[in-house]
Amino acid sequence: MGVVAVSEDTREALENFAAKRGDLQVDADSVSEAAQEHIAQMFQMIAACHEFQRAYNALDSSRYARTFVIELRSSSDSLTDLRAKMEEYMNNGARLGWLIDPLADPKLVYIYRPQAQVEVLEDANSVSGEPELPGFTLDLTRIWDTPT
User: What spatial distance separates the first Cα and last Cα of the chain, rounded to whole Å?
Assistant: First the structure.
């Protein structure tokens, strides 16, 4: 079994990983050539993912924002998390957002618009997209009638 020299960065990364796990011991000098190649490939993939994340974070998100967003709350969703997500959509350029909560009693639709207070509809049969979506109205009765 051949042994390949491990760079200081790779050795440090392996030792940090082992330290976080707490149940591993790293002796990079005894790692086979094939294993070291695999480790090098993994680190290249991780570096590529980090590079992608940096590029994604640098994007002007308002250029790519959704214009209209609908979130439909399910039993596994946290209302607090969904509200935060809706605020994020608005902060990133969405012009209209509906958070539909069929689990609430009464059933609620939160209407989000930029720089505006959230409007709340209770037990509404429909919700209108005016003025952002002229002529669009969503019939809510099928959503309300669906068992949760």
Answer: 59
